[in-house]
């Protein structure tokens, strides 16, 4: 039997856009096992389908017949686990693909000799915002699964919508405007639910399904997020939505942790009963279904801890704490911010915190990330990262007062486009010397991150640490600027599996959540991130003086784009 066979552990699952993945983490918080299934590669049969045109789905009580999705048109593959529809806006994934992927991962684990009897608890993550529609009668199937058959075979007829809207969908603009109007405007909706209306957010997706396919909607007994759907598969009954992933729906009042009646009413009728009450993210929602006990040998006492969204689960995997910030420097740059008192705004999202229900997590996305850095490297640093670094080292903090904005594609935070350069006197200039250009780009990107995080209520505190991940986190000189602009030390860590690992950590936390033991205590044995840069002396004074100037110039650019206020 394999070496991993008999360690007491928790499992962390990730139902992401492209794959289902699991890690096993032992009581010393070592990851000792991982397995995955990639949808495009391992389940190509789902790629051969095209999408059902909008229209009534099969109605009536559940019968065990294959799911009817009325596919028509030419065959298409899933790409990256999704089907992009002809309108270019609608993006879905087949729900049975996710179920079968779970079957395959479990069978692979069994074949490898994995000892399921040692699993104390399971938890998991799902791509955020996606939704699953369980057909009337599905609950009965879920509670009486036969251990002789795979899940995919038994759940075939359990869904009233077989192609689930996912986070990449942007087809619900009309529903968003309606929801904002019902809530008293975008700002009011953001104050209530943590975000203005976004096309991918689940309430707007549900509203669209109700409007376009009322029969399927009324034949739905339960609506899950991808996370709570995956938890339901393990529980053998419907798992509640957790507060943190529930905050990505435009339906949950993030302070009171209850569904907003105004938002529910604006989206679809009888929605509250189809969603069920939400629960704290660290709640143990029940013991694993006897299906897994009989088929795989799980211990009957193995607990299922509420699943959450992939971003909240990553926060747990990175072990962020109050005042910390994680900066992912990828194609887009993303910021995760731990907040105590959020100020929801028209940009970014505020979610309930997955490891501390009193606190919050904000997410900000900056579209001009590594592609812009590469472009400026090619133009001003001879296509070389070495030259790029040299330019950063040969220029001073604050760049002699020169400030730049580099929005090569339409930026999300803030909504602006084009390149804008200003000299120390605040005059717009058309170009900078090469080295100044490189520093203006990097300082500008990090000042924008700090300012917009502060706009959501973030404050640097003495114990703040910045966790940098993604491609550019390998460049020490870029990280030095990050440390200087934020006035806080920068750490790096391997976060490739952070949603899975965070889910396993959360499973351990769920086991003791009743004792009020804080998450930080549960994960104190986990590997520490590595210190990569500390702020240079004098950095705080330089950037505290520059940040208000940067903010004013950003406003100037925005008023040029949007026109002066009326
Ligand atoms: C977050 C979002 C994505 C998905 C990706 O709001 O839409 O990060 O969670 O899985």
Q: How would you describe this structure to a colleague?
A:
- The protein has 2 domains: 2-50 and 65-312, Nucleotidyltransferase, domain 5 (2-Layer Sandwich); 319-492 and 536-566, ATPase, nucleotide binding domain (Nucleotidyltransferase, domain 5).
- Helix content is 36%, strand content 20%.
- It has 21 helices and 25 strands.
- The strands form 6 sheets. Strands 1, 2, 3, 6, 13, 14 and 15 form a 7-stranded mixed β-sheet that branches. The protein has a 7-stranded mixed β-sheet with strand order 18-19-17-16-23-24-25, sandwiched between helices. A 3-stranded antiparallel β-sheet has the order 4-5-9.
- The site of D-xylulose has 11 residues, from helix 14.
Quick overview of this protein structure:
With 566 residues, the chain is of the alpha+beta class. It is built from 21 helices and 25 strands.
Based on the model shown, name its key terms.
566 residues, alpha+beta, Nucleotidyltransferase, domain 5, 2 domains, seven-stranded mixed sheet, 21 helices, 36% helix, 20% strand, binds D-xylulose
Assembly context of the chains:
single chain
What is the CATH third-level topology name of the largest domain?
Nucleotidyltransferase, domain 5
- Any idea what the shape is? globular
Residues in helices, as a percent range: 25-40%
- Stretches where pLDDT is under 50 for at least 5 consecutive residues are 49-75
